[in-house]
Amino acid sequence: MIIFGTRGYLYQLAVLTMVCGWCGIPAAHTLRKRVTKFTLFFVPLFPFSTKYATQCTFCGGERQIPKEQADGLLAQAQGGQDGNPYGAAPQQQPGYAPPGGQNPYQN
Q1: Taking residues 29-53, what's their average pLDDT?
Q2: pLDDT of 53
Q3: What pLDDT does 78 receive?
Q4: Other beta carbons less than 10 A from residue 54's beta carbon
Q5: Beta strand spans in the chain (E)
Q6: Distance CA 85, CA 17 (A)
Q7: What residues contact residue 48 under an 8 Å CB cut-off, 6+ apart?
Q8: What is the residue-averaged pLDDT of the chain?
């Protein structure tokens, strides 16, 4: 007797802020990759289906996207992870003043 079947794997690749196509609200979207693999005796052997989708975290709407668009979104998400997500200028904490400057929070 041979036991075979399929098993699905879901990978979360990134979290992006985009305007949702369902609700129209700018919200976080998860970029997901769903891979279906052929199994033999409960051992996954090879993938035979790969699909990409984005899901809105506000309304839950999901949209299938092609691999090329998913790669572009993933590159965009990884481009902002160079240690400073706000751009080139470092962000200061509220109430922080460089040494030698006037700081109203110190006596």
Answers
A1: 94
A2: 94
A3: 86
A4: 22
A5: 4-19, 26-40, 43-56, 62-65
A6: 13
A7: 6, 36, 37, 38
A8: 81
In the DSSP assignment, the letter for residue 85 is T
Q: Residue 11 carries which side chain, given as an amino acid letter?
A: Y
Q: Do the beta carbons of residue 16 and residue 76 sit within 8 Å? A: yes
The token pair that represents 81 in the structure block? 């992870």
Decide if pLDDT at 30 tops 80: yes
| Residue 22: per-residue pLDDT | 87
Q: Residue 77's pLDDT is what? A: 86
Amino acid at 94: P
Q: Alpha carbon of 44 to those of 3, 8, 13, 29, 52: distances in Å?
A: 12, 10, 21, 29, 20
pLDDT (0 to 100) of residue 50:
95
Distances (CA, A) of 64 to 5, 19, 36, 52, 67: 24, 15, 15, 6, 10
Bridge partners of 14, per DSSP, are 31
